[in-house]
Every structure is written in C-alpha cells, then in structure tokens.
Amino acid sequence: VIGDSKRAVNELKQLSEQTGADHILAWMNIGSASNQFVLESMRQFAQHVMPQLDVYHPKERSGLGAPGHS
Fold first, then answer.
1. pLDDT(50) > 70
2. Within 10 Å of residue 49's Cβ, how many Cβ atoms?
3. For residue 26, which of 11, 60, 36 has the smallest C-alpha distance?
4. Mean pLDDT, the chain, as a whole number?
5. Given CA atoms 23, 16, 1, 3 in this order, what sign does their dihedral have?
6. Does 45 or 19 have the greater pLDDT score?
7. Torsion of Cα atoms, 6 then 12 then 15 then 19, to 10°
8. How many Cβ atoms are within 10 Å of 64's Cβ, its own excluded?
9. Which long-range contacts (CB under 8 A, 24 or more apart) does 26-35 make?
10. What mean pLDDT comes out for the span 33-42?
11. Interatomic CA distance for residues 15 and 37, integer angstroms
C-alpha cells in the first residue's frame, strides 16, 4: 500500500475485509529512499494510520487461514 495516510487506512481496511488478515507487516525502507524519508513515513504511519486501525475490527470470516483461525 502506497499513498497518504487516508489512502493507507482505506486500503488496509479493504485488504483486511477481503482476506481476513488481522496483522500488518510494514516494510518502509524500500529501494533508495533516504533515511529521513523512511523515518517520516514511519512517523506518519504511527500517528495517522495505526490509531485508526487499532479500533478497527474486520468482519469474521470462516474457512480462511490456518486451522483454528477464522
């Protein structure tokens, strides 16, 4: 997911609904991005995206994922 905070929140929620995923692995140091850019991206993600996802609960989905997981 690449974009501003609003787009990131919307796309992560949509991906969660489509896949049943309830965890995120973020890789922010991509290619030749400067250290300053990476740190700013991490700060914005922590301040503007994570709080909105922390209170978000995707719908229960059955039959997806590893045994014992919905």
1. yes
2. 20
3. 11
4. 84
5. negative
6. 45
7. -160
8. 10
9. none
10. 94
11. 25
